[in-house]
Design goal:
Blueprint (H helix, E strand, L loop, with lengths): L6 H4 L5 E10 L2 E11 L4 E5 L6 H9 L6 E6 L2 E3 L4 H6 L2 E4 L11 H6 L5 E3 L6 E2 L1 H15 L14 H14 L4 E5 L7 H16 L3 E5 L3 H7 L2 E6 L2 E7 L5 H9 L24 E10 L9 E9 L3 E5 L6 H9 L6 E6 L2 E2 L5 H7 L1 E4 L3 H5 L6 H6 L9 E2 L2 E2 L1 H14 L16 H12 L6 E5 L7 H16 L3 E5 L3 H7 L2 E6 L2 E7 L5 H8 L8
Parallel strand pairs: 3-10, 3-11, 6-9, 9-10, 15-22, 15-23, 18-21, 21-22
Antiparallel strand pairs: 1-2, 1-4, 4-5, 7-8, 11-12, 13-14, 13-16, 16-17, 19-20, 23-24
Helix pairs in contact: 5-6, 15-16
């Protein structure tokens, strides 16, 4: 584990930073004169909405991109990187949100990949010293306080173990500046606490840590200082002790937060009669898993009533994907039944289920929720373009579909240029609002919602949460899968916890807390009532 280097190091004002960095993609400036400094032995948070320029800046700091103007600063000196190895040679390493481990290799093989210790150096015939590799791995793992089975295949290791191996791999290569991109996105609360304890330990030994996150409460809990980016520029930097959540949020959105209280969306059908009967019922549903990283569904059973939001909490890879795919009709149910409004839909197709009243917000907006090369209009009317009212013979009634598209987009406040613009031209938040506008347009009985605010800015999150509450108020039923526990607690009437493909606990949404839900998420063994 890195330690303080020399007294000269302690006098440095900038361990890692940027000086007047500009980066253009065509005529678009992703970074516009960004300057910031992270000090020796400091956890420095970088926050901002999607498109604020965080990812571009991190790629520049890591040597993946070169700035068009300005420079990276390391130990108070301007430097220029042509490749990531040059950054690593200066002690800069990055743990990406999508882990970089080779899934077919063991954790030990991943630890030393590209920097293998050798017992006999014979060029391409060199012999790897696996004993030395294991000793170095064990020593670093001991410092972290988490035991690691180095012989486990990477693809079967839990996400927090994979993340830990990524960090240890960088430490083993001498990194003493760590850039962490959304490191808590897939962790349960107890695992977040373990990660924060490790990062504080590294900081206290002199490691500089750049912490990229959209979770402001975590920034407050972990960081020493925070820098806010908005539209490619630095708009705010402060010591954490001098700010609170509201202050940081204000600077992120620039004082342009939506006034949700003044908006009203009526999603209820005129024929809706709230009886609080079950809209959805699952009886002992079993299904096979997707990959070695995920889990088969084991006797899943629960219900969702009319006008109710039921949240599913769990560490990624515990059967959430399989559950949502079974409900949508994209995965075969091996045994058990799925009942929608007293009708067995277990073996119905996806099209039949949608016709029965199921709407679906996919967790993969880019590849499943949208046709990225199609227009805004084509995306928002998809599924309704075959309605008899939208056709004149075999041809689409253009005036009708244009009016339909405009009405749907306006209902959810989607900001767009022209209906003919490609949907990819919209921000992440507006793309997600468009998906919601399409899926709720027919007032479905049941809305299956997976990761609804992934890649969405603060204003977009506010609008999406308001939409879900309005849908529930109109009698709609929602199954909500989210990796954001704050989101589940804010929206859910009940929260179910899934572990290893089984429902292990249920809590009242109004009374549950993060600590209790987090403890269930990492439990193994018997079901807790």
């Amino acid at each position: 584990m890195p330690a303080l280097n020399t007294q000269n190091d302690i006098q440095l004002s900038t361990r890692l930073g940027a000086r007047a960095v500009y980066k253009y993609y065509g005529e678009v400036a992703s970074n516009r004169g960004i300057s910031f400094d992270a000090r020796l032995g400091e956890i420095h948070a970088i926050v901002g909405e999607n498109g604020a320029g965080k990812s571009t800046l991190m790629r520049i700091l890591q040597g993946l991109e070169k700035p068009d103007q300005g420079s990276v600063v390391v130990d108070d000196n301007d430097v220029s990187f042509n490749r990531p190895q040059q950054a690593l040679d200066l002690g800069i390493g990055m743990v990406h949100q999508e882990f970089m481990l080779a899934p077919e290799l063991t954790l030990l093989e991943n630890l030393v990949l590209g920097d293998e210790p050798v017992s006999r150096a014979w060029g391409s015939f060199s012999v790897i010293d696996w004993d030395e590799a294991r000793r170095s791995g064990d020593a670093l793992a001991k410092d972290t306080g988490v035991p690691i089975d180095w012989d486990s295949p990477s693809e079967t290791a839990s996400v927090h173990i994979q993340q830990l191996v990524e960090i240890i791999r960088l430490l083993r290569r001498g990194a003493n500046i760590l850039i962490l991109d959304e490191p808590t996105a897939v962790l349960a609360p107890p695992q977040v606490e373990d990660l924060f304890a490790l990062l504080h330990k590294l900081r206290d030994k002199g490691t500089t840590i750049i912490f990229i996150s959209h979770k402001i409460k975590e920034v407050i809990a972990l960081a020493d200082r925070v820098t806010v980016l908005r539209r490619g520029e630095v708009t705010f930097t402060a010591e954490i002790k001098d700010v609170d959540v509201a202050t940081i949020a204000h600077h992120i959105v620039g004082g342009n937060a939506e006034d949700t209280a003044s908006q009203s969306i009526n999603l209820a059908s005129k024929d809706t009669k709230l009886t609080k009967q079950n809209c959805l019922l699952l009886e002992n549903v079993c299904a096979i898993s997707s990959t070695a990283k995920s889990r088969a569904l084991q006797n899943i059973g629960f219900s969702i009533r009319q006008g109710e939001i039921v949240g599913i909490a769990g560490v990624a890879g515990n059967g959430q994907d399989e559950l949502i795919e079974c409900l949508v009709g994209l995965r075969r149910v091996q045994s058990g039944r799925i009942i929608l409004d007293d009708v067995d839909i277990t073996h119905k197709s996806n099209a039949e289920r949608r016709a029965s009243g199921i709407g679906f917000i996919s967790p993969d907006r880019a590849n499943e929720g949208l046709a990225k090369l199609a227009s805004v209009e084509e995306n928002v009317i998809a599924g309704s373009h075959r309605d008899p009212a939208a056709l004149i013979g075999p041809l689409r009634k253009l005036s009708y579909t244009k009016q339909m598209a405009t009405k749907r987009l306006d209902a959810l406040g989607v900001i767009y240029g022209d209906l003919t613009d490609p949907v990819s031209s919209l921000s992440g938040g507006n793309q997600q609002r468009l998906v919601f506008a399409r899926e709720i347009s027919g007032v479905p009985k049941l809305l299956l919602v997976a990761q609804p605010t992934r890649g969405v800015d603060l204003n977009g999150i506010t609008a999406i949460h308001k939409t879900l509450r309005a849908y529930r108020a109109g009698g709609g039923s929602v199954l909500l899968l989210s990796e954001e526990l704050d989101e589940l607690l804010a929206l859910s009437d009940r929260i179910l916890v899934i572990v290893d493909g089984r429902i292990v606990g249920e809590r009242n949404g109004a009374k549950a807390n993060i600590t209790e839900i987090g403890a269930l998420m990492v439990m193994q063994g018997e079901v807790h009532a």
